[in-house]
Amino acid sequence: DAFGSVAPADARYFAENAKSFSTRLSEKTREWEALAEPLKKEKVVTYHRDFNYLLRWLGIESVGTIEEKHGAPPGPRTTHELVLRMKENKVKIVMTTTFQNLNLARHVAEMADAHHVVVPTSVGGADEATDYMALFDTILRRLLAARAESPKGAH
């Protein structure tokens, strides 16, 4: 409606596109939820709390974050405690974005025998995340691939 009020001659076009997008999004949401079923109850560590809504939606449990406060890297003791918690909880995935400290995230993942997964947070955040639907396709594909690479019994 907002676009139609700005460009009344194109109001029908905007309404049709909105309806088409909404229908496609509903279909993709059902597809994503079915695809993500193996991730339910999976335990992960994230760099920050960037993915709380995504994790909650997919039923993935966050066991902790690498950096509690933005811009304040954890000390050795904090990192050690996180790694111990990861091992206790059988965490096999460390999630980060492209703009976080990837070296530190890889280090934590290696110490805990986990997989480091870089996921985009927006369209264009990865080459294959070309639109909104592709963004979530990419995120799920990467999480599922990391889960599949984990040793049996780790889930």
Structure report:
- This protein is an alpha/beta fold.
- The protein is built from 6 helices and 4 strands.
- Strands 2-1-3-4 form a 4-stranded parallel beta sheet, sandwiched between helices.
- α3 links the parallel β1 and β2.
- α2 packs parallel to α6.
- The longest helix has 25 residues.
- The protein is elongated, with a radius of gyration of 19 Å.
- It starts with a helix and ends in a 6-residue tail after the last helix.
- The model has no long low-confidence stretch (mean pLDDT 92).
Report the uncertain regions. none
Count every helix, treating DSSP H or I runs of 4 or more residues as helices: 6
Helix-and-strand structural type: alpha/beta
Provide mean pLDDT, rounded.
Answer: 92
Q: Summarize the main sheet.
A: 4 strands, parallel
Straight-line distance between termini: 46 Å
User: What is the helix content?
Assistant: 40-55%
Number of strands: 4
Shape: elongated
Rg over CA atoms, rounded to whole Å, is: 19 Å
* Largest sheet strand order: 2-1-3-4
Please write the string of helix (H) and strand (E) elements.
HHEHEHEHEH
The proportion of strand residues reads 5-15%
